[in-house]
Design a protein that fits this description.
Length: 423
């Protein structure tokens, strides 16, 4: 027998392991709350960067560089004690064994799981929508849209055009659709006036199709009407109360029977649950989102929390909107609750703090609906929108780069668009 056996120090018990699926708004917010807690935290994502989705449409219209809206996850992680990053494509989650399985064969065990996988594009079963339209939900999506827009212009300049090749149809009258349509109209007007003067501006149509009777359904009706008028002034043709029946390579067929010849369809009509979240054997709420209790836990799996777009978070008689602020707040709450459990405290119900909603329509035109029945529109709302988005961007370099890009675009507006290349 070893004489020193009784003097050996037993190994310290391992800290509970928290795995966060997704490095979006919710995932990083949760990791931030777990910083310094008595846990080991691992953020998992197929990409090694966080994407600032609210500005993807500006990448798609060459207003910003891809790097302006992407932030390295490892740069975030190195500033947070006890947080690590695992890049990889998750193929499944064994909820009974508490393991995350990866495409590369790796397995990651967990004690607590935060599902913050975000959402993906919802095509609502429209024939040809997934195959023939382009969405703007990822950085790759935005780059594909940008390349297609300028390829259209160059092809028309070189080979000519007959009908519809320069027409872009945007489907969906929510904030993404409105922002995309307004920016496209301004981009095309300036591009044809300066860089593509051989093309007929009348052939470069921008149409926005919305199945409801007004744009920006979540906003005050007066702001919706302002958005419609502002888009019309920019030359956008707005079709309200009209739905898309079919999308082909060179046309859009509306439910009314109208056929619109076009060269590009941008789908901004809605989001659906991410494929991974959808595959998990967990209870569902409306829209296919994962059902959670008031603490953001899954009732049948108390070690599983859900945050962001994947969570069916109750908000009065509806579910919380799939937007950035709800994602950030639910992510923070999920992180806090796990921290409380590890420290031996009880969890607390989630309470959403409404900070308002905004949408920009174009240069010096936006709408803002803020708490306290504050309604802004025009230049003041546009300045508020600019300030909020610069403030919310992750990383000083990204904030500075976006500020400089926006300032340069504002000052050099009449000189035409500055096409930004590189992926």
């Amino acid at each position: 027998m070893d004489a020193n056996a009784d003097d050996r120090v037993p190994p310290a018990p391992q800290k509970p392991h928290v795995v966060i699926l997704g490095a979006g708004f919710a995932g990083l917010a949760a990791a931030g709350e777990l910083n310094g807690a008595a846990v080991r935290t691992t953020i998992v994502d197929r990409h090694n960067y966080n994407t600032f989705q609210p500005l993807l449409y500006q990448v798609a219209t060459a207003g910003l560089n891809p790097g302006d809206v992407a932030y390295p996850v490892r740069t975030y992680v190195k500033r947070h004690a006890g947080v690590r990053f695992r890049q990889g494509l998750v193929t499944s989650v064994d909820l009974d064994a508490r393991e995350v399985h990866f495409e590369d064969g790796g397995v990651l065990p967990y004690d607590y799981l935060i599902v913050s996988t975000g959402a993906t594009t919802n095509y609502f079963g429209v024939t040809g929508a997934q195959e023939q339209s382009l969405a703007i939900y990822t950085l790759d999506d935005a780059l594909a849209v940008r390349d297609r827009i300028f390829a259209q212009l160059e092809r028309a300049s070189a080979l000519g055009y007959a009908k519809g090749e320069l027409t872009i149809v945007v489907v969906g009258g929510g904030p993404t659709g409105v922002e995309m349509a307004g920016t496209l109209a301004e981009l095309r007007a300036m591009a044809l006036r300066t860089s593509y003067r051989e093309l007929d501006p009348k052939m470069a149509r921008i149409l926005l199709v919305e199945r409801l009777e007004r744009l920006l359904a979540g906003f005050d009706e007066r702001l919706s009407k302002y958005a419609s008028r502002s888009l019309a002034r920019r030359g956008v043709e707005v079709r309200l109360g009209e739905s898309v029946e079919e999308i082909a390579a060179d046309k859009v067929v509306l439910a009314s029977g109208e056929i619109i010849a076009c060269g590009l369809v941008i789908w901004a009509a809605g989001v659906a649950t991410n494929e991974l979240a959808h595959a998990l054997d967990l209870p569902r709420s409306r829209g296919g989102r994962i059902a959670v209790d008031e603490h953001l836990r899954v009732a049948s799996r108390q070690e599983v929390f859900v945050a962001g777009d994947a969570a069916g978070t109750p908000y009065g008689d509806v579910l919380l909107a799939q937007l950035a602020q709800p994602a950030i707040q639910t992510g923070r709450h999920a992180g806090r609750q796990i921290r409380s459990l590890v420290e031996g405290s009880a969890t607390k119900p989630f309470r959403y703090r409404d900070k308002g909603i905004m949408a920009t329509i174009g240069r010096r035109s936006a709408v803002a609906q803020l708490p306290g029945h504050i309604r802004l529109r025009g230049t003041l709302a546009w300045i508020a929108w600019l300030g909020l988005h610069i403030f919310t961007l992750i990383g000083f370099r990204n904030r500075l780069s976006v500020l400089l890009n926006w300032s340069w675009r504002y000052l050099s507006w009449r000189r035409g668009p500055r096409v930004i290349v590189g992926g």
